[in-house]
Amino acid sequence: MIQYTLKRLLETIPIWVAITLIVFLLMNFIPGDPVMQLMDARSGAIDEQVVEQIREEWGLNDPLYMQYLNFLTNLVQGDLGTSFQSRMEVTSVLLERIPVTIQVTLLGLFFAIVIGVTAGIISAMKRGNWLDTFVSTFSIAGVSLPAFFLGLLLMYIFSVKLNWLPASGYKLGEVKFLILPAITLGLSVSGIIARITRSSMIDVLKMDYMVTSYAKGLSKYRILGIHAMKNALSPILTIIGVQLGLLLSGAVITETIFGLPGIGRLLIDGILQRDIPVVQGCVIFISTVFLVVNLLTDICCRLVDPRIRSEH
Amino acid sequence: MSKLLEICDLKVGFTKNDEFTPVIKGINFSLNKGENLGIVGESGCGKSMTSLAIMGLLKHKGLTVSEGQIKWNGRNLIDQSEKEQKSMLGNEVAMIFQEPMTALNPMLTVGTQIVEQIRAHRKVSKKEAEAHAIQMLKKVGIPSPESRMNVYPHEMSGGMRQRVMIAMAISCEPELLIADEPTTALDVTIQAQILDLLSNLVSETNRSMILITHDLGVVANYCQRVMVMYSGKVMEESPTNELFDKPLHPYTKGLIESVKSIEENSERIASIPGMVPLPGEVIAGCVFCERCPYATDICSQQEPPIETTDDGRRVSCWNYKNLSEVVGAYE
């Protein structure tokens, strides 16, 4: 198992480097000169000499590969550069924003799993019943409804009409600001989790060992919770892993709608201001999390299934 | 002898598009305490469905009991509550399935699977249940049972897995064991071992067993009484010795001849022509009529009743009295 983990970890490193390269190149190919943008914003009059000086200072005149190598070396040391706009360390800006995003994402994931897995199990059990139809409709709606629309809808109902929860803003340690964004995220992802759970459960319920477990006179909890769930878990875990990445990118939209100061907002602001180091930092953070989550999912799937576990 | 199990006019089938298709078409039989009953027949004749009906597990295969009664120690099992059923299954009646490869849960250790059954029916601590499980594994002849407790099913051979199934089935000392083709999926060399083990375990404690098989040889060695089924009906029911000496039903005769011709090394293997009818196929008269070499006019017009002979055998055939006169019908 340890051997497998190490192997997967080593495989992940080149992928991660490739991601940094792609992100770096994309940023360079985006039209628009950040220095010009900055000058525009500051005064309007453009002094060629100052522009040249800034370009030199930021390393923008070096050949592309040199720029990339510099970027990568700094990145490995945890230095993501300095924001063009605020002149602050990108790493420290990110560290400030990350907790907000992680809170929303994890809370959203919690809602997604609770709603999705429960709905999936119920509809697998009540196959063909009205409850099953209801869950199917609901999950298609969840998959196809855009997050921003769902967010606005929830905001309208719970903030404007019922006045139960704040519509936007954030205060450290106050959960009420996180509930609506988390539900928005969770609902949009729970649909797909419900569908996978349902089909995985239906497959498992047909298996011979399920009949055995009934024939043994076990309790319903043991039959469904242990015998069925343990076998149905792998595909559900995989989809949850993939969806976690989707939740992170969904955070871009929800954070903007609900005015949360997280990574998503930082990314949008960075893009609007052509603040390349900030955008790079955000994208690299999100893709790194994505990679790590995928790695963890694979390891979890292995831990769950004794047949794969013993192959090594 | 008191009747442990009584099946009265049992009908089982499935409903598709509001149409009911019978699979078991009204069968009667009973089982005494301490008796081994063999149920024989080709694939698709309703043997396994009968056993699932007794266990109350039909709904998991999409089937329902439409008529009849299953009496367990005088209590009708058809309308018992879920709670009553749960306390009975695995405790008073236990089942051994055909495929040890798929009947054990691949995600749980052998120990866990035996222990959970013991703890579902006995109020014992985990430690006691584990000790009991180890005893059971020892009893079914698994070497070094202590270490086998932590092994997953895929790490064992087919024969070992079936031994685990048996250990599990006897762990709560059930009065009745139902073994549904317990050796079909196993190597020939293992088959006899498993069957010997089963019959020893059963006779040792005066338990009863229903052994479902399509192998007449197995029945001859391990059962006192045999019931022959065909297309969801009972064709014949007799004590084993008498059945082999003088089969009453043409179908039984065909089954025995086909085994005999293999044993006698004859050039041509005798076989019963045709195939088992599909569920839902409507047959006028006797269900076996189309494949029966002894069939007369009445066979295709009217269904034969099940008759009890003077010496207590049961048979469902219009011509059973005249069979011995026709020689070599199956050659």
TrEMBL record, chain A:
<feature type="transmembrane region" description="Helical">
    <location>
        <begin position="12"/>
        <end position="30"/>
    </location>
</feature>
<dbReference type="Pfam" id="PF00528">
    <property type="entry name" value="BPD_transp_1"/>
</dbReference>
<dbReference type="Pfam" id="PF19300">
    <property type="entry name" value="BPD_transp_1_N"/>
</dbReference>
<feature type="transmembrane region" description="Helical">
    <location>
        <begin position="232"/>
        <end position="258"/>
    </location>
</feature>
<dbReference type="InterPro" id="IPR000515">
    <property type="entry name" value="MetI-like"/>
</dbReference>
<feature type="transmembrane region" description="Helical">
    <location>
        <begin position="100"/>
        <end position="122"/>
    </location>
</feature>
<feature type="transmembrane region" description="Helical">
    <location>
        <begin position="178"/>
        <end position="197"/>
    </location>
</feature>
<keyword id="KW-1003">Cell membrane</keyword>
<protein>
    <submittedName>
        <fullName>ABC transporter permease</fullName>
    </submittedName>
</protein>
<feature type="transmembrane region" description="Helical">
    <location>
        <begin position="278"/>
        <end position="297"/>
    </location>
</feature>
<dbReference type="InterPro" id="IPR035906">
    <property type="entry name" value="MetI-like_sf"/>
</dbReference>
<keyword id="KW-0812">Transmembrane</keyword>
<comment type="similarity">
    <text>Belongs to the binding-protein-dependent transport system permease family.</text>
</comment>
<keyword id="KW-0813">Transport</keyword>
<feature type="domain" description="ABC transmembrane type-1">
    <location>
        <begin position="98"/>
        <end position="297"/>
    </location>
</feature>
<feature type="transmembrane region" description="Helical">
    <location>
        <begin position="134"/>
        <end position="158"/>
    </location>
</feature>
<keyword id="KW-0472">Membrane</keyword>
<keyword id="KW-1133">Transmembrane helix</keyword>
<dbReference type="InterPro" id="IPR045621">
    <property type="entry name" value="BPD_transp_1_N"/>
</dbReference>
From TrEMBL, chain B:
<keyword id="KW-1003">Cell membrane</keyword>
<dbReference type="InterPro" id="IPR003439">
    <property type="entry name" value="ABC_transporter-like_ATP-bd"/>
</dbReference>
<protein>
    <submittedName>
        <fullName>ABC transporter ATP-binding protein</fullName>
    </submittedName>
</protein>
<dbReference type="InterPro" id="IPR027417">
    <property type="entry name" value="P-loop_NTPase"/>
</dbReference>
<keyword id="KW-0067">ATP-binding</keyword>
<dbReference type="InterPro" id="IPR017871">
    <property type="entry name" value="ABC_transporter-like_CS"/>
</dbReference>
<keyword id="KW-0472">Membrane</keyword>
<keyword id="KW-0813">Transport</keyword>
<dbReference type="Pfam" id="PF00005">
    <property type="entry name" value="ABC_tran"/>
</dbReference>
<comment type="similarity">
    <text>Belongs to the ABC transporter superfamily.</text>
</comment>
<dbReference type="InterPro" id="IPR003593">
    <property type="entry name" value="AAA+_ATPase"/>
</dbReference>
<keyword id="KW-0547">Nucleotide-binding</keyword>
<feature type="domain" description="ABC transporter">
    <location>
        <begin position="5"/>
        <end position="256"/>
    </location>
</feature>
<dbReference type="InterPro" id="IPR050388">
    <property type="entry name" value="ABC_Ni/Peptide_Import"/>
</dbReference>
<dbReference type="Pfam" id="PF08352">
    <property type="entry name" value="oligo_HPY"/>
</dbReference>
<dbReference type="InterPro" id="IPR013563">
    <property type="entry name" value="Oligopep_ABC_C"/>
</dbReference>
<dbReference type="GO" id="GO:0005524">
    <property type="term" value="F:ATP binding"/>
</dbReference>
